[in-house]
From TrEMBL:
It is found in: Membrane. It catalyses: ATP + protein L-histidine = ADP + protein N-phospho-L-histidine. The gene is cusS_2. CDD domains: HisKA. InterPro entries: HAMP_dom, HATPase_C_sf, HATPase_dom, His_kinase_dom, HisK_dim/P_dom, HisK_dim/P_sf, Sig_transdc_His_kin-like_C, TCS_sensor_his_kinase. It is an enzyme of class 2 (transferase). GO terms for cellular component: plasma membrane. This is histidine kinase.
Length: 464
């Protein structure tokens, strides 16, 4: 099964294309080496033949035919010319001198020729000879040649070695490509098997790692991290659904109870008006909850970046403090604004107002009665910072990451007004503005800091 998938895989087809291309390149290189070597060796042999023929023709020009015959006989007797062949023939193809018995078949009266013939002075049987023929002024024909059997064997060995090397390289490349493809297909199949298991069983499956720390392990690690993230998001969705059902059950149950009671009771103008008012109030709570969810979703989709302008955090924080001053006085809480006189940044003014307002509202609601809430705006080396501090019971350190989830409420906050969406909105606004949220112990109480990054030109950075 794996082998069949290997041969059908795109990786294998690409490997075959690469092997074919590589094989053509290697074959072309060896062909060039073969042609260059043979040409070089043959050219040296041809130059020796041309030089020897020129020497013989000079002797013919000086001493005539008899002198040429004498020189040919001398060459044949000389062992240093043992691999040379000579033939001088007269009219009617009569052999006048030389170590060839007859004029070679197919050889012309002038020009190069290759042939096989028995030569008494050569040990090889019918060696391969290469010669140069010429017609002398008296009409006789002169053939000067050289035994190229060694050259022929040498070129044959080069050709055989080249073919063997090309075949070996192609075989090794094919084996390597099949091995690499099988490994790739095996890893892909492992990912596919895990994916099928996830589709059938759930998100608790993970792609196995081999510990090789290669690119496949990195892909598996990233996919596992993605699955962790998906599982976490699915858990958040389930929690949000459960929390919505829990938070909607109370107002809807109250509304149904009132309406059912009014349905069975006689009409009473004042009582009906009070019932309608209470029902509208409960509906407002439900609608406000859905409005908050819609607003958070809109912010998280970054649909509001078009409203980014240069704003002064101190001015926005001052408006929030002024808005909540009356609420703070009702709880005997002191609400102060501190820090720098001007803190500039780029952002959405309305969203920043909502985020700061939620932080201040939470600080007043969950802080100590008769305590103090301080809003601080300042410039830091990294950018703009706004902090909201109270002196209430604070939030346990192990709950810091969970309070930003939708509808999440601490146990001590269950009986205070709210729906658990305030800090979720703050987190969405911070993410939109590329801000970092820090929760710290104010000893006593809680300190929440929003830190906005600053770009290289000094303006707060807008992160995607």
């Amino acid at each position: 099964m794996l082998l069949a998938k290997t041969f059908r895989s795109t990786t294998f087809r690409l490997a075959l294309i690469a092997i074919g291309t590589f094989g053509l390149i290697v074959s072309a290189i060896f062909a060039y080496v073969y042609w260059s070597t043979v040409s070089y060796v043959r050219s040296r042999s041809d130059r020796a033949i041309v030089t020897e023929q020129a020497s013989l023709r000079e002797v013919f020009a000086r001493s005539g035919r008899d002198g040429l015959i004498a020189l040919i006989d001398q060459r044949i007797a000389d062992k240093s010319f043992a691999d040379h062949v000579y033939m001088l023939s007269g009219p009617g193809a009569v052999v006048l001198a030389g170590n060839l018995k007859q004029w070679p078949d197919g050889a012309t009266a002038a020009g190069w020729t290759e042939f096989r013939a028995a030569v008494p002075t050569l040990a090889a049987q019918d060696p391969l000879l290469r010669g140069l023929a010429a017609t002398l002024p008296d009409g006789s024909r002169l053939l000067v040649g050289h035994d190229i059997s060694d050259l022929d064997g040498f070129t044959a060995r080069i050709r055989a070695a080249g073919i063997a090397v090309v075949v070996l390289i192609l075989a090794l490349a094919a084996v390597a490509s099949i091995g690499v493809t099988r490994r790739t297909v095996a890893r892909i199949e492992s990912i596919n098997a895990t994916s099928r298991a996830i589709m059938l069983a759930g998100l608790d499956q993970r792609i196995p790692l081999r510990g090789s720390h290669d690119e496949w392990d990195r892909v598996a690690e990233n996919l596992n991290l993605m699955l962790d993230r998906i599982e976490s998001l699915m858990g958040d969705v389930k929690q949000v659904s459960d929390n919505i059902a829990h938070d909607l059950r109370t107002p809807l149950t109250r509304m149904r109870g009132r309406l059912e009671k009014a349905y069975h009771a006689p009409r009473d103008g004042e009582g009906d008006a009070a019932l309608i008012g209470d029902t509208i109030a409960d509906l407002d709570i439900v609608l406000a909850m859905f409005a908050s969810l819609t607003r958070i979703s809109e912010i998280e989709t970054r649909a509001r970046r078009g409203a980014f302008r240069t704003v002064n955090l101190v001015e926005i924080a001052g408006e929030v403090v002024e808005l909540y001053d009356a609420a703070a006085e009702r709880d005997s809480t002191r609400l102060d604004l501190a820090g720098d006189a001007e803190v500039l940044m780029t952002g959405d003014r309305d969203l920043l107002f909502d985020a700061i307002a939620n932080l201040v509202d939470n600080a007043i609601k969950h802080g100590r009665a008769g305590g103090r809430v301080t809003v601080t705006c300042c410039n830091s080396a990294d950018g703009a910072v706004i902090a909201v501090a109270d002196d209430g019971p604070g939030i346990p350190a192990d709950q810091h990451d969970r309070v930003f989830k939708r509808f999440y409420r601490l146990e001590q906050s269950r009986y205070t007004p709210g729906n658990g969406l305030g800090l979720s909105l703050v987190a969405a606004v911070a993410s939109l503005h590329g801000a970092k949220i820090e929760l710290r112990d104010n000893a006593p109480g809680l300190l929440v800091r929003l830190c906005f990054a600053r770009s290289a030109n000094g303006a707060p950075e807008r992160r995607a």
